[in-house]
Amino acid sequence: MSIVVTTLLGYLLGSIPTGVLVGRLAGIGDVREYGSGKTGFTNSLRTLGVRWASLVVVVDVAKGAAPVLIGRLLFDEPMAAALGGVAAVIGHTFPVFAGFRGGRGVATAFGAFLAVSPLAALACLTFALVILAVFRYASLMSVVGVFAGFLVVVGLVVTDRAATPYLLFALLTMLAIEFNHIANIKRLLAGTEPKLGQGGQRRDPSGA
């Protein structure tokens, strides 16, 4: 029962469309009408600016951390914590409260990694910031950062410093983030990916 409750709660928390809510609060409307069409930090930064985007990222991180902490501290069940974190990322990507059109789940994944292992979260953040500083691509930062976190969790599980279910969490979360960035990876290879802060124009509703 703890696994079912935490997984469901993780999905519902992840489904809170922070970027959409903050965009409306900021008076710009639906952030999905701009830039990449996503609800996460990067598109919020492009369209809303640093102040409002900071609020988005804080809430999105909390969405990922909360179900993991509930699984760990309330239920003392690693599998519940692991699946709660994965569910939060899926909820952020396919939010039931926003027509199943969300973001790529990076901040939410970071929050889940933070609650699973601060060391893994530190690896995510360190590699992400280095990549961002050197290349200025938020998408490249995301895929490299989450992979670094995955590798740390693997190391912790192999050395018996973390419960085995967290390996499942790290693998599924990493795969989800990489899958959500397939289009970005293609643009990176083609040299057409916008750098951080670029590409915040209103989207063409016709899709052209």
Please provide a written account of the structure.
- By secondary structure, the protein is mostly helical.
- The chain has one domain (2-97, 107-190).
- The protein has 10 helices and no strands.
- The chain has helices at residues 2-14, 18-25, 41-48, 50-74, 78-93, 106-116, 118-135, 138-158, 165-180, 182-190.
- The chain starts with a helix and ends in an 18-residue tail after the last helix.
- The model has no long low-confidence stretch (mean pLDDT 94).
Task: Please tell me the overall pLDDT.
Answer: 94
Number of strands: 0
Tell me the number of structural domains: 1
Any idea what the shape is?
globular
Which helices and strands occur, and which strands form pairs?
Blueprint lengths: L1 H13 L3 H8 L15 H8 L1 H25 L3 H16 L12 H11 L1 H18 L2 H21 L6 H16 L1 H9 L18
Helix pairs in contact: 1-4, 1-5, 2-4, 3-4, 4-5, 4-6, 5-6, 5-9, 6-7, 6-9, 7-8, 8-9
